[in-house]
C-alpha cells in the first residue's frame, strides 16, 4: 500500500474502506462460528442416536442368541419325544 502520494482525504477514504472490510470479515466469522456450533450440536445428536442404535443392535443380537438356543432346545425335545413314540 503506497501512501506517499495520497492526500489526507484519500487516506481517510482508505481507512473507511478497510473498516468496512473488517466489519464484513467479523460478520463472516460470526456466521462461520454459528455454523460450527450447529454442526457440533448435530454431531452430538447423531452420536447419541448411534449409541441408541448400537444398544438396540446389541439387544437384537442377544435376542437372536436366546431364540437360537430355544430353537435348539425345542428340536432336541422334538426328536426325543418323537423317538420315544409320543
Annotation keywords:
1 helix; 86 residues; mainly alpha; rod-shaped
Task: Describe the 3D structure.
With 86 residues, the protein is an all-alpha fold. It contains one helix and no strands. The chain is rod-shaped, with a radius of gyration of 36 Å.
Unreliable spans are none
Name the shape in a single word.
Answer: rod-shaped
Q: Count every helix, treating DSSP H or I runs of 4 or more residues as helices.
A: 1
Count the strands? 0
Sequence of secondary-structure elements:
H
What structural class do the secondary elements suggest? mainly alpha
Set out the fold topology:
Blueprint: H1 8-83
What's a quick, concise take on this entry?
The protein has 86 residues and is an all-alpha fold. The chain has one helix at residues 8-83.
